[in-house]
Amino acid sequence: MTVGSSLPPAERRVLRHEILHGLRSGILNGEIPPGTRLLEIPLATERGVSRAPVREALRQLEQEGLVEFLPHRGAIVVGVADIEMETIYGIRALLEERAFAKACRVVDEAQLDALAATVELMIEASDAGDVAAVTEHDMHFHGRVVELSGFQYLRRLWTSIDGLVRLRAERYAQRPDLADPASAREWLMVPSIEHRQLVEALRSRRPATAARAARMHVARALERLHDEHP
Predict the structure, then answer these.
(1) Same structural domain for residues 23 and 130?
(2) Residue 67: beta bridge partners?
(3) What would the pLDDT profile of 49-70 be if each residue is shown by its tens digit?
(4) In this structure, are residues 43 and 61 in contact, taking their beta carbons and an 8 Å threshold?
């Protein structure tokens, strides 16, 4: 399959991040399946832009692990085997415990309040059964903590697994039982509320406390993956 005419046109002034958002959303919600070729020229032509922003968006998707560049084929949408997710979450746990330990020493009150506000938005979205919004707030929260830590290499590593974690969350969101808002609310609420504990761990200004909270949070996320797919 080749993506081209199936994607909607965009205004000439479309920015790189808008192209990125459209392609990422298509991949995450299954509209652009694994094996699809993403060609620069058709994508740029349909959106009325040069190839440069399309190329940048595709390279970002490569960093996020959602596409792979193959010789003579260009960018190909890739999938992630279930067996690899435990390793990915293990890497995430190591990355986040170090990021939280560092961030708790440098984050200021305004930044903590902003993180807490993101958590409350996540909880509100959980109460509404809005899986997509919860996922977006969740990834923003964790990505922001990694950013606040100041670890540039860890931030690049986080970017490389961000898309994979989003992909798994979006796949879970397609489960038939989550079409019912009440079921979705129950599934989303507990992990969303857990983020309040993460904020409090950051407020403690104790690196060991923050690291432990982050590690336990990711471990519980992995346990939920196992519960869904024993």
Answers:
(1) no
(2) 77
(3) 888 889 999 998 888 778 999 8
(4) no
Same domain, residue pair 136 and 205: yes
DSSP label at residue 179: G
Same domain, 61 and 100: no
Site of tokens 């519980």: 220
d(CA 75, CA 1): 12
Q: Measuring CA to CA, how many Å separate 54 from each of 19, 20, 45? A: 7, 8, 10
CATH number at residue 104: 1.20.120.530
128, 189 Cβ separation under 8 angstroms: no
- Same domain assignment for residues 129 and 209: yes
Which structural domain range is residue 7 located in? 2-77
Same domain, 66 and 145: no
Q: Could you tell me what percentage of the chain is helix, strand and coil, using 3-state DSSP and rounding each to the nearest 5?
A: 75, 5, 20
Token pair 């403690």 in the structure block, residue: 204
> Tokens standing for 12?
């000439």
- Is this structure's pTM higher than 0.85? no
Total domain count for the chain?
2
Closest alpha carbon to 95 in 204, 229, 217: 217
Residues 122 and 59 in one domain: no
| 143-172 pLDDT per residue, tens | 999 999 999 988 888 877 877 777 676 666
Residue with tokens 């024993």: 230
Interhelix angle 40-47/16-28, rounded to 10 degrees, is 120
SS3 76: strand
Sequence letter at residue 131: V
